[in-house]
Amino acid sequence: MFKKLRSEFNTVFEKDPAARSRIEVLLAYPGLHAILFHRVSHWFYHHKLVLIARLISHFGRFMTGIEIHPGAMIGERFFIDHGMGVVIGETSEIGDDVLLYQGVTLGGTGIEKGKRHPTIRNNVVVGAGAKVLGAITIGDNVRIGAGSVVVRDVPDNTTVVGVPARAVFEQGKRVTPLDVLDHGQLPDPEVEIVKILVDRIHRLEERVNKIKEVKEVKDVDDIKEMKESEEMLRCFMDGAGI
Fold it and tell me: Coil, strand, or helix at residue 107?
């Protein structure tokens, strides 16, 4: 128990450069408070004491602004940075070393029973305000950009951004602690598409200009040939006395 608690504390220092002391983290980090409340509520939920579990979860929500259903399964070294507005649904499954920012929703897309919330695997970063919806799977080492809406599975080692989220493939490139927080470097797929379209327009304009040049040359040759034919016909008619 104490080993897991120490691990939760160390995770805060690893993932938040603003953390300065253990007493500060203990008293002033709602992300840590929320996960501690969840560990307790999940124990009661797992032992079929649902009402007690929900009351503890509700109190944790009131204290932290973070709502985690006691049925959610959360792995080790989980951290919520800032945390206000985070919602994690009942059938969510979260692996180890996952980082969520404020405003993240791990939600469902319907009212059906059974698995209806996302599965987040290991070493995943979900940016501020992102929505991950439905019984989808987010693979290992995935980065989800701020404000993205993810409604489909995301393969391992991939970055997704946008609404709906589009994949910017980085297969084989592991997200390291040095760049895991560098959201300013996330690519914008819409800008990339516009660049591709502009380049294509330039290439088409070059082809059109080349065709015009060829046609102009051909027209000049045709006029020259017609003039030569007229000159030959005139000489023939003069020679024939016509």
Answer: strand
Structure tokens at 96: 């180890």
Q: Any residues with CB less than 8 A from the CB of 57 and at least 6 apart, and which?
A: 37, 38, 41, 67, 68, 69, 70
Q: Are strands 137-138 and 93-94 parallel, antiparallel or unpaired?
A: unpaired
Give one DSSP letter per residue of 132-187, joined into a string: EESS-EE-TT-EE-TT-EE-S-B-TTEEEETTTTEEEE-TT-PPPTTTTT-GGG--
Q: Give the whole-angstrom CA distance, residue 102 versus residue 138.
A: 19
Going across the sheet that includes 131-133, the strands are: 67-68, 87-88, 105-107, 131-133, 149-150
The Cβ-side half-sphere exposure at 43, using a 13 Å CA radius, reads: 7
Most confident of 5-9, 98-102, 214-218: 98-102
Residue where the block lists tokens 């985070």:
86
Residue with tokens 């490139």: 173
Q: Which range has highest mean pLDDT (3-12, 60-69, 170-179)?
A: 60-69
Cα angle 157-163-167, degrees, rounded to a multiple of 5: 20
* pLDDT value of position 105: 94
Backbone angles phi, psi at 144, to 5 degrees: -115, 120
The helix/strand/coil state of 73 is strand
CB 144 within 8 A of CB 126: yes
Query: pLDDT tens for residues 27-77?
Result: 888 999 999 999 999 999 999 999 999 999 999 999 999 999 999 999 999
